[in-house]
Design goal:
5 helices, two-stranded antiparallel sheet, 131 residues, 2 domains, 21% helix, alpha+beta, four-stranded antiparallel sheet
Length: 131
């Protein structure tokens, strides 16, 4: 598979894998410092003492106590089965409402490099390059 491929914004990746992903502290830092409450309210946090909440009210000083980060949850902390930032528009393409600040797991996902052959066969950007 090629290292770089043009995404056609079909949304298949986000529909299949855009939720129930583990997060990293490095994603939270800019969201906290830039007060991205629109994102933080959908991030599930588990602390070292077992307490769970959304990341809406955490601060950078809380991060050392975070043991698990989950993408995505509803404002009550229940796991979602979709990405809350998925936006299919009238042009038929899918856009990310937090594209400028999306998490590393989303930025780094490239189905043509993941070795997920059954999925890649359904990805319009991958079809032409699958052996």
């Amino acid at each position: 598979m090629p290292e770089v491929q043009d995404c056609r914004q079909c949304g298949k990746c986000c529909e299949k894998w855009g939720w129930d992903q583990k997060g990293i502290v490095e994603d939270l830092l800019p969201w906290i410092t830039k007060r991205r409450t629109d994102i933080l309210r959908h991030v599930g946090i588990t602390f070292a003492d077992g307490r769970r909440s959304t990341a809406l009210h955490i601060s950078c000083s809380d991060l050392s106590r975070v043991t698990r980060i989950a993408y995505w949850v509803d404002p009550q902390g229940r796991n979602l089965t979709h990405c809350p930032f998925f936006d299919r528009r009238s042009d038929g393409k899918v856009y990310c409402r937090i594209h400028d600040a999306k998490p590393a797991v989303c930025i780094g996902f490239t189905p043509w490099n993941e070795g997920i052959r059954d999925y890649a066969l359904n990805c319009p950007a991958c079809r032409d390059s699958i052996p």
